[in-house]
Design a protein that fits this description.
Organism: Dactylosporangium salmoneum
Oligomer: single chain
Shape: globular
CATH topology: Lipocalin
Structural class: mainly beta
Number of helices: 1
Strand content: over 45%
Radius of gyration: 18 Å
Distance between the termini: 51 Å
Protein name: Lipoprotein
Largest sheet: 8 strands, antiparallel, barrel
Length: 134
């Protein structure tokens, strides 16, 4: 009987791990040093984040439909309220724009990832940024 309970418990734990393996985790803290590097987006853009609050963008999607931003800019890490898609975001502004864009931090499959939402986050109109390795 004890072996049967262990087998059932092991199966339940295994299924729980499988079920949560693909889930996104909210990120509460992001050290600036962990975001320095080259980020590629699923919307064919690149964001090269440098130390000291600067970046260079290549074809990142902007809030204006159909436009992409390219060039240097400024970034800052922001703490967000409870109604935000994530507790922490990377806010970026191209030098030739007055518009700040928010990229929301999550962990996906254990990797720090940024999501850029357009419109209602529930509509899944999103660019996903992941850091290029190597």
């Amino acid at each position: 009987m004890v072996d049967m309970r262990r087998a059932v418990a092991g199966t339940v734990v295994g299924l729980a791990l499988i079920a949560t393996a693909g889930c996104d985790e909210k990120v509460k803290e992001v050290p600036a040093s962990s975001i320095v590097g080259v980020w590629r987006s699923t919307c064919d853009g690149t964001l090269t984040v440098a130390e000291g609050g600067t970046f260079t963008a290549e074809s990142i999607r902007t809030e204006t439909e159909g436009t992409k931003g390219t060039g240097p800019g400024t970034w800052r890490i922001e703490k967000n309220g409870s109604t935000s898609p994530s507790p922490v975001s990377l806010d970026v502004k191209l030098d030739d724009s007055n518009q700040w864009l928010s990229l929301y931090f999550i962990k996906r499959k254990g990797q720090l990832t940024m999501l850029q939402y357009f419109g209602d986050p529930d509509n899944n109109d999103t660019c996903v940024f992941t850091m290029r390795q190597g």
